[in-house]
Amino acid sequence: MPVALIIGASRGIGQELAMQYKAAGWRVIATARKEEDLAALQSAGCEALPLDVTNLNDCAGLGWRLDDEKLDVAILNAGMFGPRTSGLTTPDQQQFDAVMHTNVLAAMRILPIVLPLVEHARGRLAVLSSGMASIGERSNPAGWLYRASKTALNSVLKDVSLSTDKAICVAMDPGWVQTDMGGSGAEITVDVSVAGIRQTLAALKPADNGKYLQYTGAEHGW
Ligand code: NDP
Description:
Layout: E1 3-7, H1 12-23, E2 27-32, H2 35-43, E3 47-50, H3 56-66, E4 73-76, H4 93-120, E5 124-128, H5 144-162, E6 168-173, H6 190-202, E7 212-214
Parallel strand pairs: 1-2, 1-4, 2-3, 4-5, 5-6, 6-7
The structure holds NADPH dihydro-nicotinamide-adenine-dinucleotide phosphate.
NADPH dihydro-nicotinamide-adenine-dinucleotide phosphate (NDP) binds near residues 12 and 77.
C-alpha cells in the first residue's frame, strides 16, 4: 500500500489531501498541532502525528516517529499568510518572524528529515508554494511578506532537489483555493485543487525534479 505524509492536515488543502489519499486506498500519515484535529484525523483512518512546524522539539521528534518509513509522497502544506497589508507596508519583526518561521525555517528543518524517507521509496516530495511566489509574473506588491516567504521556500525546495537524484521534488502552486486562507471568493474549490495536485504528483518523471508547477501540471515561471 502506498504511503503519503501530509504535514499540516487540520483543515483546508492539507485536510483534503489527507482525505483524498485515504479515499484512494493509501496509508496516510497526517500531522496537526491541536488535539481535536489529531483526533479527527484518526477517526478518518489516518495515522495522526502531533507537529507544530515552528516547534523545534516537534520537528526533531518527527524523524524518530517516522523512523524507517518509505514515503511514496510527502507534502509540506502547513503555511501562513500573515498581515494582509497593501503596498510596501513594512511588517513588524514579530510578523516577519512568524511568517518566515512557518513558511521557510520550518521547511529547512523538516525537508532534510523527510527527504531520506522519500528517497527510500523513490517517491515525490512537494512543498505548497504559491503563484504569488513567482517574481517574473508579479504585477503589484500586494502581500509582499507572504510573497517573500514563498519565493524563499521555492529557493529552499530547489536546493533540496539539487541534493538528490532518488526523489522528485517540486514546488506546487495549488491555485487560488476556497479555504480559510484563500477566502470564499477564490477561483477553485479545495477538491479541484487537491485532485489536480495528486494527479500532477502521480505523473511526475525524474526530469521534473526541481520544477515549480501549477496544480494543473503546467510549469510556472520562477
Ligand atoms: P489554511 O489557512 O486554510 O490552512 C493552513 C494550514 O497550515 C492549517 O492546517 C494550519 O494548521 C497549518 N499550519 C499553519 N501554521 C502551522 C504551524 N505552525 N504548525 C503546523 N501547522 C500549521 O490554508 P490553505 O489550506 O489555503 O493553504 C495550504 C497551503 O497552500 C499553505 O502553505 C498556503 O500558503 C498554500 N497556498 C494556498 C492558497 C489558497 O488560495 N488557499 C494559494 C497558494 C498557496 P492549524 O489549523 O493548526 O492552524
